Give the backbone structure.
Amino acid sequence: MREVMLGFMGEFDLIETFFKRPARHATLGVGDDCALLAVSPGQHLAISSDMLVEGRHFLSTVNPRHLGHKALAVNLSDLAACGAKPKAFMLALSLPQVDPHWLSEFSQGLWALADAHDIDLIGGDTTRGPLNICITVLGEVPASQALLRSGAQVGDDIYVSGHLGDARLALEVFRGNMKVPAPVFESARWRMEQPTPRVALGMALRGIAHSAADISDGLLGDLGHILKASGVGAEIETQQVASTLACISSKEFHDQLDLASQLALTLSGGDDYELVFTAAPDQREAVAAASQTAQTRVTRIGYISAPHHLVLRDAKGHVMPHTFASFDHFKSA
Amino acid sequence: MREVMLGFMGEFDLIETFFKRPARHATLGVGDDCALLAVSPGQHLAISSDMLVEGRHFLSTVNPRHLGHKALAVNLSDLAACGAKPKAFMLALSLPQVDPHWLSEFSQGLWALADAHDIDLIGGDTTRGPLNICITVLGEVPASQALLRSGAQVGDDIYVSGHLGDARLALEVFRGNMKVPAPVFESARWRMEQPTPRVALGMALRGIAHSAADISDGLLGDLGHILKASGVGAEIETQQVASTLACISSKEFHDQLDLASQLALTLSGGDDYELVFTAAPDQREAVAAASQTAQTRVTRIGYISAPHHLVLRDAKGHVMPHTFASFDHFKSA
């Protein structure tokens, strides 16, 4: 951390005010050239970095408190996908100007989620420039129990956690492509701006799941990574996937959203920060118990097959065409 | 790492081409949700993040190969300041467009320095947005031997490594504020664009130095952090500091640069990526031996004093005024 940039910076002393707190777990916290971290015996360190850019990962109108939450949440979601327990994080921040209100709100969103996971901000960097938030999270996982993309086995059940598609629904409303009742929009917007990283579920699935990934860019894309890394294929029951869309639990709205839209949102929506994972059929009770422990819904959406491709089936078991591309940061607006 | 952003991205497959290599040391490399790293028994993990923004940390005209080197070098410099051995790094990159030539050059500069330190790129993120490079480095240091800012003791000698001020000289020439002969400029520009992180020196100073920091924002500012963290002051022999300016070794140029400019450049220049450290006077031979081992020049520039302020002295021992503010990213252009 180039702390001189904080200490000698006049108005940038504000940043120190918002982001410097005593570390509870690390040996050394914010302020030296490096942060020092003790890793527990028998544990591997799990590390992930995500960079969030305005206009691509969040809208300029976003509530900064929600942004602080989301910037950390998307990183914690990567730890969840490995079954790791979060331990600490680094924050690198480029800001066009120093806005105390913005910083206060942003940091409160960040701290609330950090506190919920009992993790420290141990270092980072601040500079002036176009708004950019780069967080690196550090976690621990027993060396032999990390959940990987490469462990899926033929015959495994495929599951997803929580709800898919609602975040994308909110984005499409923002873009003016869809219209939904106000309560549906508010709930979908919450899912977009305040995702819940499935850390407890990831940890509960250690020793149970054969493989896992987080769903950040759409189920089909992220499941595709498991299939590729494991050298297997999948059969997906699309009506099970569509059933994970939270907004259709609203009776009035249920009939307004056709099945094709439900499938596009849930199969390829992106920004879900749920887990997709696989486990052997004889682990169904164990998966249910993990779901219970983590207080997180899981839905079985299909199974792993030997042929190297992904097959979508409708409610009658008929094969459906693949017309749902993964959300692509470089093709979409 | 949101690998779907690489795998499904058409032209962004290029990024995978440039940044994906088999990891040599990590348990898992680029491609899963997290990278997994084994930390050696008895070692602490040392972590640092630096974010580089165009127009602030580098000029738009910079050779991308040099930029690749520098982006990693400034991070390794933080590890050096802690006496840590580099182990791995994460790269988060925001790019306005995918330019294969730029990516090829940037990655070659990055790999060359990574290879020199035998470290792996183990993960990260890529997105579209204003050019921003955020690197997080991970290193190891024995728990009790980390060099901290807080360890300086009254009576310690103060040393700096290598050369100070030349990088800032190059910047001032770029800005049109100074004129220097072409060979002087080329050598100063090399110092600005291709800093050498003092990793070997930092490791050699384990158990010898009481405190250390890297000089990224100017000697006075970074030494100031040691003084503040240690609750001590310092007496600085400014002519010793000025003597570290490499460009004045050029005979013709020596007489053209007045002492005030030499002092401004070396005391407050910034972008040096050298180490400032302190050690007890009875460690002078050990410091000389560490310098020899690391093949890195060190210069004694003063000593740690009890009063809580920093005193600058001229060649005759007279106290000089403090007119050299630290380089400030938010006040300078």
About this structure: The domain at 149-320 of chain B is CATH 3.90.650.10 (Phosphoribosyl-aminoimidazole Synthetase; Chain A, domain 2). The longest helix of chain B spans residues 64-82. The radius of gyration of chain B is 20 Å.
